[in-house]
Design goal:
The complex is a heterodimer.
Chain A: H1 6-25, H2 29-41, H3 44-69, H4 77-94, H5 99-128, H6 132-151, H7 189-206, H8 208-218, H9 220-225, H10 230-248, H11 250-257, H12 268-278, H13 283-302, H14 310-337
Helix pairs in contact in A: 1-14, 2-13, 3-7, 3-10, 3-12, 3-13, 4-5, 4-6, 4-10, 4-11, 4-12, 5-6, 5-10, 7-8, 7-13, 8-10, 12-13, 12-14, 13-14
Chain B: H1 2-29, H2 37-55, H3 58-82, H4 87-110, H5 136-140, H6 143-161, H7 163-173, H8 176-180, H9 185-211, H10 222-232, H11 237-257, H12 264-268, H13 270-279
Helix pairs in contact in B: 1-6, 1-9, 1-10, 1-11, 2-3, 2-4, 2-9, 2-10, 3-4, 3-9, 6-7, 7-9, 10-11, 10-13
The chains are: A mainly alpha, B mainly alpha.
Amino acid sequence: MLVALSPLVAVAAALLAGAVFIAAIGERPLEVYGLLASQAFGTGYGLGQTLFRATPLVFTGLAVALGFRAGLFNIGVEGQMYLGGFAAALAGAYLRVPAPLALPAALLAAALAGGAWGAVPGVLKARFGSHEVINTIMLNFIAFALVSWAGRSLFETATVRTRTIAAAAELPRLDFLSSALRGSPVNASLLIGLLLAAAVGALLFRSRLGYELRAVGWNAPAAEYGGVRTGVAQALAMTLSGAVAGLGGTNFVLGYKHWFELDFPGGAGFIGIAVALLGRNHPVGVIVAALFFGALSYGGLVVNQRVPRELVEVLTALVLLFAITARPVLERVARRLV
Amino acid sequence: MEVLLFLAAAVRISVPYALAAMGSALSERGGVICIGLEGIMLAGALGYTVGAYWSGNPWAGVGAALLVGAAMAWLHAEATVRFRADQITSGLGLNLLAAGLTRLVLVQVFHSSSNSARVVGLPQWHLPLVDGLPGVGALLGSPLVLATFALVFLVQRLLFRTVFGLRLRATGERPEAPATLGLSVTRIRFSGVLLCGLLAGLAGAYLASEQHSFTDGMTGGRGYIALAAMIVGKWSPVGAAAACLMFGAAEALQIRLQGSAFPAELLQTLPYVVTMLVLAGFIGRAVAPRAVGVPYDPEER
């Protein structure tokens, strides 16, 4: 019971630690936090910005959670998202297809690129038992190097970006839902993320494959004994995780800038780990956690005049560190109480 | 001449890798994965810069880097050894924390979000005999390079020829064994992680001293290459240092190839590709300490 509260305890502890930093700078913590929240949620534009920043985190959080459920730690989400965005931009700019197919093709390219990059550590794990954590870290760096090599001839040298994608491959802005969102960059990538969250939830908790994945994550030898081919399940989980991460690249490429640029919003992959942890690897939890970090990211930017925006990065790291220690600490407390 | 210059460049590049890689070998031999190497190095580099800036003395900078490295490692040890939190997540948290905190301190102390003021570097010694040799003279005149040479042998000895090393290795393989002898698994693992922090902090000091300043994100993934080298070197300090030398040579070659037809980016991937091949068992077998990554819970049997 107590343990279920661990995400809330982690956030509270991180905000408390952040308050100490804010006070040390000579500002009033409550005022700063209040301002941050009102900026992130108070206006239509602010909400749009928060949602825009939460969008890639929905994807990366889902991707990490999917891996976690199968007992795998996908740290390669950053690289998978990067390659997904690159592939989407290439398909959107260079593929000659009829207009109605342009967007599906770009989305498919993103999923395929990310999925392929996720499959490598998955297969290596299944076939040779090599640790997916190290392999995904290595593959992140290989992805960055490959993109800068492959992109060299494609990039317009002055701006280090690819050509602009075809208009038919663009994801529309969400201001058609509410005029209050006008001007903010939130786009249909968010809707894809929400659909994907539902799909991941259905896969994990309503399908046979999902049951097998969770069985492998819970107790691999027992699952193997129960007839699950653990290797296949793990390779599949990693591939799906990579595909979800790859689709995360569409927010920036198809929905916002309409091109791919070097080092496009970096870090979403790593924050995705915090999102998955805080969301307790559940799709609904992931959405809530993504919203939290999205608000922190935009609100932090706005309160920059009062406190340095680097504080947001520190807060994110603290949430991550407290999220993993809150659980064992609460468990210890619970053990004492009984 | 060309060869000497090239070799000197390769060694110079591999020094920070080797220091951090040896550190992670100690940490992992005790059973604690340290993905946070990158963050510890970065924090160490800032520690050197601030220490040297405030005191005007490079050795105070080194001291500050060691202190900061140990403090970061202590956080990691508290989370993973005492509270048995997930080691990989804690390491990633450390990296995120270092990225944010260093930027925060940079803004507060130097009023810039990208780089610090210029600070003193470590002195350059002039050794007899080698001083005139191109590249080599400057290399061997660097105190931290010499210290690294010494440390490779000292750390190897510490791990394989001392009682402490034996206990550390036993803790990483089967923590129940030292626990049965009445030794504190917590204390042994703490020492491994703290030594790792000191070495990675020193690696950061070297980088900042060479550059005479701190720039945001200046470690640029070196911590991860060090981690890779430690695996390629099969969890031994000498092996890790040798792997670092190989990666250093590849990087030196890559710098030379810039502007030529050969894509330098592809050579850049060498450390990562080699590590994956080693892990898959294509180049010899790499076996991690048996209990690495597994928290030890004395209340659980």
